[in-house]
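Page 37, top half.
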Amino acid sequence: MPRSSNQKLKLLRIYNYLLEYTDGEHTVTAADIIKELERYGIPAERKSIYSDLEALADMGVDVQKSADGWFIGEREFDLPELKLLVDAVQSSKFITRKKSGELIKKLEKLTSRHQAVELQRQVFVANRVKSMNESIYYTVDAINNAINADRQLSFRYFDRDAQKNKVYRHGGGILTVSPWAFVLDGENYYMVAYDSAADTVKHYRIDKMDSASTSGKSRMGGQLFEDFDAALYARRMFGMYAGNEYMVTLACKNRLAGVMLDRFGEGTIFVKASPEWLEFNVRVAVSPNFYGWLACFGGDCTIKSPSSVVDGFRKYIGGIAAAYEVSDK
């Protein structure tokens, strides 16, 4: 048989065809493959198809044979793994709806057309609001580039007003910091960085950043991140709300031990204060978010020390009570 000008693409065409149309429940025959190759002007005989399939197997492709035909067995990602990734993308607040759709389309290409249908699923997460910032991918890329190049990052930081317009902080000025880590806390994605101007570690919500670019300046503050633990950092920063850090002694009812372990980690050491109460020490960033979290437990979790944090909590709940006082007028 004379060789076609497309003959060099034959093996690649077969490989792509198997990837797209076969899986453990869907097979193709040699005749199907020959028909597919004809679409690209590539003539083939049954015997050569068998040789090509063997060549793919020799290259490490998991080409399998069943009674009905040939199919790709093991892939880079199994279907349950892809479903998990799709669920994660759909339920992530910091990824916009548009970007979620684009990512899922790409994930669908990692399996057969038949199984891709199973990835077109809707994940419902209570009160989940998607980010409005379409540039988040480029911001993440800019942060990674800065970290890999050991350079500082410049960007602008914003909030949104009632009309959903961006309101830039610092008068719209450019911030320049040294990025060192990413932290995912709850529904939001943060960059943790060293701010040399304030000589402190800060974090920034990535979906509130734009115009991010690598600076020509070398990063600073590396000594503060030598033993950085992202999970520990997130636990200390309640809702990633910054505040002064204190070693706080808390007391809670026995039934809340599991809740405290979830919040502060398995390293939490409890001391039996009474038959019904436990005490433990934790380092936290004291903020309104911390006080709000504590208030959820009523009197079943209390602050024992230091006195300044106790006084702060009294003022916090006092302010809430004052807002609900009934006027005599």
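Page 37, bottom half:
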Amino acid sequence: KIRRIVEILREQILSSLNFDIIGICETHLQSYQSIDIFGYEWFGNNRKNILVNSWRGSGGVRFLVSKSIIENFTCSVLNDNYEDILWISLKCKNDINFVIHLCVCYLQPERSSRGNIAQEYYDVLLSQIYLYSGCSNLFVCDDFNGRIGNLQDFDDNIDFIPEKSSIDDVRNAFGNYFLDFIKDAKLCVLNGRLEKDSDNYTYVSKTGKSVVDYIAVPYADLNKYSKFKVQLISDILLLYDITPAAKATIPDHSILSCSLSINDYTSNYSENGKDSNVCSKRRKYNVCNVPNDIFANQRCTRAILSVIEQMENCLNVKNEIDKLYGNFVTDYCTS
């Protein structure tokens, strides 16, 4: 009964937001469970290994994609191999070259009963970003349990992007992990950088408040994003006149939102509804000032080697399939 009360409040909040795409960290669902929200399709990665007698799951990440998006994009799970990291792919139905890769992820706290897995976690995530960064747009939303304070998330000797400000001036060890990762990935956070008046704490509870949840995007795509906002759950309950049940637990993480402009492609339709002209803009890069040691640190090296290994595995599988098919054709023809 308590679980159902929690689920109802969560569903009321999610239904009220009316976003095109919603990423959810810590779904706390069992491996077989999902949330059914009218007008959305559900893509998820629930934890498989949880305590036997637990009344709910732990961790877990999910995307809710609105039907209006699915009408225009083919949406599929891109990668859910690593626990608490989920990638989905949106491929435009009117322009095969326009693809958006979205990632929602959750890193358990430093003192979690499952141990400190930050090094392994960021190695996996960085290799995935290297692997998927060739798309039109890449977007990461996350609860990294890292506080970075007023430290900047880019190398000012190489990168030229607007500085961020933070309402949370505290730093912790996981914040250092996060900063190293985000610099290696060439991503920057929207927190404290866009619409600073709409910034707020992303975690608020009786024990304190902090900024540990982020939206991160590639430097080159920063100008595509606007209307960044952090909304406290208490404000959302008031805004949408939601009254929690007596035993309902109010979520302690805020809602982060932003708008993405997808003007990288144009589509003109003829009167019969078919494409008459579709064109994609190719991104160009200025690599003149890239230092020779840009990928010299250990995490970048491990991530690149991981990408190479995945590519080699794919090639080996393809060669094996080609060999089996060749043998089948030979046997069929000789028989």
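Margin note: The helical segments are 2-17, 67-72, 118-132, 173-185, 233-239, 298-334.
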